[in-house]
Specification:
The protein has helices spanning about 15-25, 30-40, 40-60; strands at about 1-10, 70-80, 80-85, 95-100, 100-110. It has about 110 residues and is of the alpha+beta class. Strand 3 and strand 4 form a beta hairpin. The longest helix is centred in the middle third of the chain and has 21 residues, at about 40-60. The N and C termini lie close together (about 5 Å).
Length: about 110
């Protein structure tokens, strides 16, 4: 049975977050949490928070055993961009895009319902 958790509007670009998400996908939950705890990227703390929430959802809502859970999928989608401007020479302006992302973690026990 699949269980998921979603974290929205996080101030990190999806490209940076996908680097960490790709390394966690397919691992057992305890191995994934251990990897995220000792990884020193900003995205690892965010993904760890969502993964812990998905595990709690699986335990409380679906009565699944934590030891059997695996990280089935980690999706990182682009969120809305905040647009800012910075003045440049000769009266021109450059646009700065402050990107955000939505992180979805799906855990599964490997059994079909």
């Amino acid at each position: 049975m699949d269980t998921r958790a979603i974290l929205k509007y996080q101030r990190i670009s999806a490209q940076k977050c996908r680097l960490v998400a790709n390394s966690v996908r397919g691992l057992k939950v305890d191995q994934a949490l251990q990897f995220l705890e000792f990884n020193n990227k900003k995205a690892s703390k965010m993904i760890m928070k969502v993964l812990e929430s998905a595990v709690a959802n699986a335990e409380n809502n679906n009565s699944l055993d934590i030891d059997e859970l695996i990280v089935k999928n980690v999706l990182v989608d682009e969120g809305p961009m905040a647009k800012r401007h910075i003045p440049r020479a000769r009266g021109r302006v450059n646009q700065i895009l402050k990107r955000s992302s939505h992180i979805t973690v799906i855990v599964s026990d490997g059994k079909e319902s």
